[in-house]
Amino acid sequence: MAVMHKSRFLNISRDYLHSAAKSNGFSYSRLESNRVLKDLSKRGRIDDARNLFDKMLDRDEFSWNTMVAGYANSGRLTEAKKLFYETPVKSSITWTSLLSGYCRYGFENEAFELFLEMQLEGQRPSQYTLGSVLGLCSTNGLLQKGEQIHGYAIKTWFDWNVFVVTSLVDMYGKCKCVFEAECLFEMVADCKYNAVWSAMLAGYSHYGYGYKAIDCFRNMRTEGVESNQFTFPSILRACGAVMACDFGSQVHGCIVRTGFGANIFVQSALVDMYAKCRDLNSAKRVLGNMEFDDEVSWNSLILGCVREGFEVEALSFFQKMRSRGMKIDEYTLPSVLNSFASMKVMQNAISVHCLIIKTGFEAYKLVNNALIDMYAKQGKLDCAIMVFSKMVDKDVVSWTSLVTGYSHNGSSEEAIKLFCKMRISGVYPDQIAVASVLSACAELTVMDFGQQIHATLVKSGLGSSLSVDNSLVTMYAKCGSIVDANRAFDNMPTRDVISWTALIVGYAQNGRGKHSLQFYDQMIATGTKPDYITFIGLLFACSHNGLLGSGRAYFEAMDKVYGIKPGPEHYACMIDLLGRSGKLAEAKGLLNQMVVAPDAVVWKALLAACRVHKELELGEMAAKNLFELEPMNSMPYVMLSNMYSAAGKWEDAARIRRLMRSRGICKEPGYSWIETNSNVSTFMSEDRSHPLRNEIYSKIDEIIMLIKEAGYVPDMSFALHDTDDEVKELGLAYHSEKLAVAFGLLTVPQGAPIRIFKNLRVCGDCHTAMKYTSKVYARHIILRDSNCFHHFTEGRCSCGDYW
Question: Rounded to 5 degrees, what are φ and ψ at 408?
Fold first, then answer.
């Protein structure tokens, strides 16, 4: 009977317009007309419905409400509003019909104005009216408006209506007020109404309360409340967020038993859950069983492959999407671009960029951000800048991607400049941007700016993160402020191996190697396992403190205890350690034991050790290997030439310098710089270009006189030109680091440390002079050369003369 009635009803709606056009006066009853009107409206045939409505001679309240609702639900709000005001008798249903349309399509101002007007006209909003308005608040995140509606619901006794409470729970949950949602949920938790349980579950799931969502789902099942196609996606999202794969699998079983296994939204949520839980095989299995291709599910699987490092497989799925004629969207392309960022496949990446332009996705912010990130990680900063400059609407991710790209590609100065532009443009940095710019500050050793970033972070209330904290420790350590680095480390709520390694390396570079070893012991006591970089820091600390026994023990423990194969950096540290200890024969033996051919880092370490111990023959061998490995690097030429000069072999020294010139190799000039009052002053040897040159050279004369009285004797072996002793002594006095310290004594306030940076290693004579200067003037002098930090205080250096 029901089927026959439905067939008859559809025939009426199909034939009515034709018969109504006849002029024989025939018409259906009002009841029958209203039924057809409702059917046409539900089917979206609004114009046909309006024609029928206009032909109706006997319209009632239902007729008017149906037509207003039809216009409103289809988004034709102007026509809905016009008909609304033509309605002779407006009931609560009439008002709610128009109001629901405004709410559905996000017309916030119009919806609330109509809600107020409704009350002024004496119409009492119904539970459905409140549900529509609260739905708008949920969608648009209008917490304050939602709280006002909640207040109205309390006054009108709707706060016990389960439909309204469900809408309130949904609103508070989506506005991140989970506690308020919980309080309301507890009022009606005893009911079997699954919508309110689903709303609470969605609130937990949406904002990362994964374990609470799981407990809520368990309680829901215990209470006998049935789950549906809205419940399952929420609990699956929660399982994915906390990687509760076992529980997610149990939910999957429940889905199959309750008959929702073929629902496309539930299937999509299953694929996403398994992908986030790193169970890609199960995700593929669910995707393969889907009856219809669903872009969201494919996107989830592609993203899962990228997260797990299966970039080739991710691209394979993308190609399958294309071959099956599936629609790609703004969520597909970022995952694909992330694959290219890891694979370094430039040609294919450019092809996808062309596809983005052809399909119009270059207008999408999410896609552009992924393009900037991809090009930056590929080292193609010019392409990243091009995409960035064309973006009309840049968000924090756009700026952060480029700042991070500059920082990771060694353009630290550009990273800091772009960060400043971002702040000027009114965009507040996120934690990733802060971590990146702190890394840039560390590389440039601009501690003042780094401190400003730190202060801004604290003032902003943004909150820290593990990456930011690690960057802070690294920045302070690399800028020579190991006390601040230690303080930042102590304030960290959580630490990982990077945190410990940053401090271990920091202490090693600041000449406090024994502290590095103590922190390593503390790290092991916490259960944190060292990594490749940790051992570089430990061996560096040992080599710069003469801890030969400890260095050997750590080197052996790498492979035997932790399964970490020594790399060139570790061998370089060990050879440096052995060389400094005078065990050059053992260093050469270790070099010969290397499984792979020694690289330039290893030979440089051996050459440096030979320089210290004046082992010319072995030094010549190391230098010749470097000539082949790095033919355009001036370092081995200069070092070998200096070794000849120190040995008095002036002709050999001149021969090496002629060889340099014949090969077109230029020596990197040595220079030192110092920052005072946000200005950087740079000095070269015997430099007289500074505006305060007269004062600086007068100060130099004063320094040399006073430190000689304290016992300083110039070391002529570092005067590398064949001249008389008086000229040699003057040449030593005007080295760039001495000029910088003289300027520092003139400009840096008493009590503040004098921070000097040099691009090359400090020479032995300047090192000795700095010790005496710190004692005579009672100043803390911090000198960072190309190798490590030297903290000079009271006539001593933190390196213990072992650098």
Answer: -75, -20
